[in-house]
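Why should sequence recovery work at all? Because a backbone constrains its sequence more than one might expect. Tight turns favour small or flexible residues, buried strands favour hydrophobic ones, and helices have their own preferences. The token representation captures these environments compactly. In the example below, the structure is given first.
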């Protein structure tokens, strides 16, 4: 079984939490499925869940280099130099990242509002990027955009390998074929 979930902001990528925070159990009713990868509590978008360990391994193991595409809202007007740096790879505290696909993007039509909303400042513009990675370090997109001078405000995963969000609303699930 393979399930796509549009994970809302503020939801943990686990089925229980001793501190009472929101979890996947609120959205996924199927039994014996587990997340194939993770999205941070403060990230949104496509999360795949499966009962197939081999498929989970294929989707998450860096040796398989499944591309993951994110829509990223950053603070400031992104410079050409920052995009070029993301495309070359960025040095983080755990080493040089692989080159990323990076390009400017517009705010997509039909983008759902985030709850709570992203902070708004009249004097500081924001811009959107599409970033595709082939590795999965902890909080990598956020650390990469910060390293090139543009902190991430909102992060939405749109695609993992051949699987895409494709119009799922936050909290909605869809059964996929493997």
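From this structural description, the recovered sequence reads:
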């Amino acid at each position: 079984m393979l399930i796509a979930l549009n994970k809302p902001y503020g939801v943990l990528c686990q089925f229980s939490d001793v501190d009472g925070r929101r979890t996947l159990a609120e959205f996924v009713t199927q039994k014996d499925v587990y997340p194939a990868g993770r999205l941070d509590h403060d990230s949104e978008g496509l999360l795949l869940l499966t009962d197939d360990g081999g498929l989970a391994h294929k989707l998450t193991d860096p040796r398989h280099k499944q591309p993951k595409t994110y829509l990223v809202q950053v603070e400031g007007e992104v410079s050409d130099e920052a995009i070029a740096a993301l495309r070359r790879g960025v040095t983080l505290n755990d080493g040089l990242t692989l080159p990323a696909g990076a390009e400017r993007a517009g705010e997509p039509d039909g983008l759902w509002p985030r709850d709570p909303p992203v902070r708004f400042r009249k004097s500081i513009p924001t811009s959107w990027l599409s970033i595709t990675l082939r590795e999965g370090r902890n909080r990598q997109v956020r650390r990469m955009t910060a390293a090139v001078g543009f902190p991430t405000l909102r992060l939405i995963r749109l695609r993992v390998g051949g699987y895409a969000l494709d119009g799922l609303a936050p909290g909605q699930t869809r059964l996929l074929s493997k």
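A few observations help interpret the result. The longest strand covers residues 152-160.
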